[in-house]
Amino acid sequence: MMRKVALSVVGLVGLLIVDTGLPLAKMYVASSLFAAFLMYMFRKPPLIDVLAIMLLGPLATGLHTWFWFNEWFRPRVFMILGGYGVAAVLILTARLIWSEREQGKKSAEILGPVIALTAVLFASTWLNGSGKLWPQTLDLYAFSFDASMGANASFWMGKMFTNHPWFGVFGTSAYHFILIAMILAQIAYEKRRLPQISRTFVLEACFVAAVLGFSFYQLYPACGPLYAFPNDFPFGAIPAHDVVRLALAPISLETHIPRNAMPSLHMTWALLIWWNLRSCGRVLHALGFIFAMLTMIGTLGTGEHYLIDLVVAFPFTVMIQGISRRELAWSARRKWVGVVAGLTTTLVWIVLLRVGIRWFWISPVISWTAVALTIGGSLYLSLPLTRFEKLGESDKVVGMSKLVASAG
């Protein structure tokens, strides 16, 4: 009993620190906490838990706004969502500590992915410090490639967002609600997965993408046109045909700006959502496609990414999907082909964008062909990796080895 009381006190203090110490107005923080609320609601919790969360959510938001802004109410969407997230985590923690083993296990199944998402946030905090490692970025190189296609897509989309705010709302909404989309995709997928597939596969794949994505950022540090051209985006772009005369060299940007443009993790996550909703029926798969397109629009229009960042995200996502299919043996052709092809294509693009930009200026046909082959090839390779049928003989190697090991 004393142990449970002590754990409860520690959990309560920890959540008070989270509620008052983290910036709930930031989408990533609020979304990761709100993930707990969404996942618990879709698990059909007891009515008493729902009522407790509905009561504690506004209290958590009020405590946060009082501590941060010295006022009890500030109507900000993410702060409200974050408050309900804190309340859900509190109730789940209480269930984990005080409930019987089965109920506690269900709470752990929800809290586990939430903790993983929070870990991504801490990783992004480390990423913000990577500017000290790379004070100079390769933004001019990515900018030059986009121009070699005949237009700067990010600047054009940025103009569309400014001139047509209603259009920008759709793109920026998809961009800011990416973590919520992950959770909704996870919930939809969870109900339709095959028994041999991990219950939290979608979130696992997104987490793997985050970890490896941060590593790849170090191979090609870039920030995006909003940061590289703060006085020019989106209306002051150099005409595309004049960019060929631009002297390519690393440029110095403020070190607090994250070097997180290449490849685009937002696009990677959106692709993982779209591809893995394929097994959830045509309607959800179509919604996944629409979300991926809106994410593409949002990443460009907000100035966070160049078009080439999104292109390289396609083979990178193929690699992530292959790695995440843990139930497949590495000897399974679709797995190793996807991982090797995705990794190789991603690295080739990084090398070309560092040392071979001039080749793409020979003709726009070269740039367009390279982009088309990359996207088309990635979509083709993604098909067998998003097919969740009964495992073939070669795919059963891992499962059989586990059974033998457990029998021993």
Fold and architecture overview:
The chain has 408 residues and is mainly α. The protein has 2 domains: 114 residues, no CATH class; 264 residues, no CATH class. It contains 18 helices and 2 strands. The protein has a two-stranded antiparallel sheet with strand order 1-2. Helix 3 crosses helix 4, helix 12 packs antiparallel against helix 13 and helix 12 packs across helix 14. The radius of gyration is 23 Å and the shape is globular. The C terminus is likely disordered.
Protein topology:
Layout: H1 2-21, H2 27-41, H3 47-69, H4 77-98, H5 101-128, E1 136-137, H6 139-148, H7 153-163, H8 165-176, H9 178-190, H10 201-217, H11 225-228, E2 251-252, H12 265-276, H13 282-301, H14 307-324, H15 333-355, H16 357-360, H17 364-385, H18 397-407
Antiparallel strand pairs: 1-2
Quickly list its features:
about 400 residues, single chain, about 70% helix, mainly alpha, disordered C terminus, 2 domains, 18 helices, 2 strands, two-stranded antiparallel ribbon
